[in-house]
């Protein structure tokens, strides 16, 4: 029965793969430097590795936003967020899975009368602004550094093309790993307290915890979403918002990967704290916002004349509508699950 309930998390993972993979390889595919099938395969493998190896940090922060304590409630929250992202993908709008799950959790809090942790909510919402700004700044710095390098080091065009393709693959793999590490919390975070898996000992000291097995399943769902339904959104991000050169595409992917990694790395946060420096919160941020912030950063450096402001407005409206729609949908769905199917959506009731 519990695997039936987990199906909504897998659906959300599929939706995330369909939508957010565009943020990792969209610019590479859009600029015709990498074929879609190659990008999808690489993205799927490294998303799973990132989810299993480094996915725990951001997941704990999301869990503090709302303590969903009944499996039917977790199912409904994940299903509502997944449907929201799926619908936006149908409209070819690159939205934030992070915003969808946050809106869905708040919808559960409101329906069940549970308090929303305001401190955690403030921390998460602040990253919705910080994330694209930081990505834009990274993209500007990297773009200027790359431009300085290529202006002073003469490279044959054929070699430059080869180096750019290899660079896009390496940076894209890093971006996919960071996406899995940061965003698996959106997919399986609401199921962590009800995980059916026990720790699995493999080859002596190597242990795969129950949470890691849960994240492995979520990672597979993301990979399937990448391969089956991400091509249209990749084209929107990669070629319609702002025309990118292959070198600029490399910068965008690297800036996106760095931002996701900064908000997901427990090791980096511990190191910064140990040397007396402030660390960024471990929060599941929006890769969609990061990559669009990076694209805009390059667009601004080039005079902002080529930016498609109409499409940018549609994307911004999608970001605003996503958490609101997910929250309302969750409240309505919880009512039906509780009163029509007679399932307990919260231990408080």
What does this protein structure show overall?
The structure is a single chain. This protein is mainly alpha-helical. The chain is built from 14 helices and 2 strands. The protein has a two-stranded antiparallel ribbon with strand order 1-2. It starts with a helix and ends in a 10-residue tail after the last helix.
Distance between the termini: 21 Å
Strand order of the largest sheet: 1-2
Residues in β-strands, percent: under 5%
Gyration radius from CA atoms, angstroms: 20 Å
What is the H-and-E element order? HHHHHHHHEEHHHHHH
Oligomer: single chain
Count of DSSP E strands?
A: 2
- Protein structure class: mainly alpha
- Categorize the overall geometry: globular
The level of helicity is over 70%
The description of the largest β-sheet is: 2 strands, antiparallel
Q: Which residues form runs of ≥5 with pLDDT under 50?
A: none
Number of helices: 14
Sequence-ordered SSE layout with sheet pairings:
Elements lengths: L1 H19 L1 H9 L5 H19 L1 H10 L5 H20 L6 H16 L5 H35 L4 H32 L11 E3 L3 E3 L1 H20 L1 H10 L5 H17 L3 H9 L12 H15 L7 H31 L10
Antiparallel strand pairs: 1-2
Helix pairs in contact: 1-5, 1-8, 1-9, 2-3, 2-10, 2-11, 3-8, 3-9, 4-7, 4-8, 5-6, 5-14, 6-14, 7-11, 7-13, 8-9, 8-11, 11-13
Condensed summary:
With 349 residues, this protein is an all-alpha fold. 75% of the residues lie in helices and 2% in strands. Strand 1 and strand 2 form a beta hairpin.
List keywords for this structure.
single chain; two-stranded antiparallel ribbon; 2% strand; mainly alpha; 349 residues; 14 helices; 2 strands
């Amino acid at each position: 029965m519990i695997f039936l309930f987990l199906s909504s998390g897998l659906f959300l993972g599929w939706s995330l793969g369909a939508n957010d993979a565009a943020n990792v390889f969209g610019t590479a595919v859009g600029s015709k430097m990498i074929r879609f099938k190659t990008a999808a395969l690489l993205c799927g493998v490294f998303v799973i590795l990132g989810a299993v190896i480094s996915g725990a940090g951001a997941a704990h922060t999301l869990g503090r936003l709302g303590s969903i304590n009944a499996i039917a409630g977790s199912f409904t929250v994940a299903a509502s967020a997944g449907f929201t992202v799926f619908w936006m993908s149908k409209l070819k709008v690159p939205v934030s899975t992070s915003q969808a799950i946050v809106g869905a959790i708040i919808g559960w809090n409101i329906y069940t009368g549970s308090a929303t942790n305001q401190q955690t909510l403030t921390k998460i919402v602040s990253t919705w602004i910080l994330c694209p700004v930081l990505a834009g700044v990274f993209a500007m710095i990297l773009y200027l550094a790359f431009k300085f390098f290529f202006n002073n080091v003469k490279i044959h065009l054929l070699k430059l093309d080869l180096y750019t393709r290899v660079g896009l693959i390496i940076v894209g793999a890093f971006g996919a790993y960071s996406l899995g590490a940061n965003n698996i919390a959106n997919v399986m975070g609401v199921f962590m307290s009800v995980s059916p898996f026990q720790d699995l000992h493999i080859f002596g000291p190597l242990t795969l915890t129950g949470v890691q097995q849960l994240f492995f399943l979520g990672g597979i769902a993301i990979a399937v979403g990448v391969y089956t339904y991400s091509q249209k959104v990749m084209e929107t991000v990669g070629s319609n918002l702002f025309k990118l050169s292959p070198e600029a595409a490399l910068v965008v992917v690297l800036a996106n990967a760095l931002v996701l990694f900064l908000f997901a790395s427990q090791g980096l946060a511990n190191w910064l704290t140990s040397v007396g420096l402030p660390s960024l919160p471990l929060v599941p941020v929006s890769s969609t916002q990061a990559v669009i912030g990076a694209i805009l950063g390059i667009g601004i450096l080039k005079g902002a004349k080529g930016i498609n402001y109409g499409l940018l407005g549609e994307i911004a409206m999608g970001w605003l509508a996503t958490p609101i729609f997910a929250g309302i949908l969750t409240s309505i769905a919880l009512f039906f699950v509780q009163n029509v199917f007679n399932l307990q959506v919260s231990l408080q009731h």
